[in-house]
Specification:
Layout: H1 27-43, H2 48-63, H3 68-77, H4 80-87, H5 98-108, H6 114-125, H7 128-132, H8 134-143, H9 148-151
């Protein structure tokens, strides 16, 4: 007597992971990626990793200079990764002029000059207004010494008062 072992004629189904529906995706991760790409484009950085490094340096410097309700609102308006950088900073002991702020950032970036640091600062800060909105941008700028508006890509803060 011969026994025949049945063999499957159809292959087992292959399951491929599908992206999570938009409602289940972590919005902060999507927001962080968008922020990194916006800064990468604005600063013409060659890699996302370079843009991410610059974001963290600039936001860590900014986090100490924005205080109170504006700091809390800024952290809430940004992707989680950026919010953590802002919120984890100790308050600065004195306000810095825009030029001093750029110098502070330059000291944190190996090989930076004041000109390259200004580029880096502007590449990060100029992408924030569309993300956080004009009212919050204005509140943040009012809290900072004169001169920061240009770093945020604004020619004149007075033009958008609320």
């Amino acid at each position: 007597m011969t026994t025949t072992v049945p063999t499957p004629t159809t292959p087992a189904p292959v399951t491929t992971p599908h992206p999570a529906p938009a409602s289940r995706r972590h919005p902060a991760s999507d927001g962080w990626t968008a922020l990194v790409e916006a800064v990468r484009d604005a600063g013409q950085y060659t890699t996302s990793a370079e843009a991410e490094r610059i974001i963290r340096i600039v936001l860590s410097a900014l986090g100490g200079h924005v205080t109170g309700d504006e700091r809390l609102a800024l952290a809430r308006a940004l992707p989680e990764e950026a919010a953590d950088v802002i919120a984890s900073q100790l308050a600065a002991t004195r306000p810095l002029t825009a030029a001093e702020f750029v110098d502070l950032v330059a000291a944190r970036i190996e090989g930076a000059t004041p000109a390259t640091a200004r580029w880096d600062v502007s590449s990060v800060l100029s992408v924030l207004p569309p993300l956080i909105g004009d009212p919050l941008t204005n509140r943040v700028l009012k809290q900072l010494p004169p001169g920061y508006a240009l770093l945020f890509g604004r020619a004149d803060l007075g033009a958008k008062d609320d």
